[in-house]
Design a protein that fits this description.
Layout (H helix, E strand, L loop, with lengths): L1 E2 L2 E2 L3 E4 L3 E6 L8 H9 L9 E9 L2 E8 L3 E3 L3 H13 L6 E6 L2 E7 L6 E4 L13
Parallel strand pairs: 4-5, 6-8
Antiparallel strand pairs: 1-2, 3-4, 5-6, 6-7, 8-9, 9-10
Length: 134
């Protein structure tokens, strides 16, 4: 797939919602606001897409940044972390249990070979509160 004049290897995964996963050399070097919106609204994804960019530290540890459709870059995405592990296993990059490091914290994700379920463990934190006026 070509986005922003660059060719990207994309692994698409559904976790009940759509995800496009890209493995990149460094998530820190990525201009996510520029490229994330282009993926979200690419004609290949008419319903739009959540996009994960993943740096492999080793087969049990990845760093991830996420662009969520309709929201932009977020601190974390549970379904995105699960999609990353599944995509990594399908591409033979990762083991079945992986530490996923996001801007908002660390998640432990396992794609269980026995029951074929994906399990995620990690903290839940309040990052925003607000009042909606209608």
């Amino acid at each position: 797939m070509t986005v922003a004049g660059q060719s990207w290897d994309v692994t698409c995964v559904s976790m009940g919602n759509p995800h496009a996963v890209m493995f990149v050399p460094s998530v820190g070097d990525l201009d996510l606001p520029a490229v994330g919106a282009l993926f979200e609204k690419h004609p290949f994804f008419p319903q739009r897409i959540n996009t994960e960019f993943v740096e492999i530290v080793n087969e049990k540890h990845v760093r991830m940044r996420v662009w969520e459709r309709g929201a932009g870059e977020t601190l974390a995405c549970g379904t995105g972390a699960c999609a990353v592990v599944v995509a990594g296993i399908l591409n033979k990059f990762l083991e079945r249990r992986v530490m996923v490091e996001l801007l908002g914290g660390i998640l432990d994700v396992e794609w269980n070979a026995t029951d074929n379920h994906v399990y995620m463990t990690g903290p839940a934190k309040t990052v925003f509160e607000g009042v909606y006026q209608y």
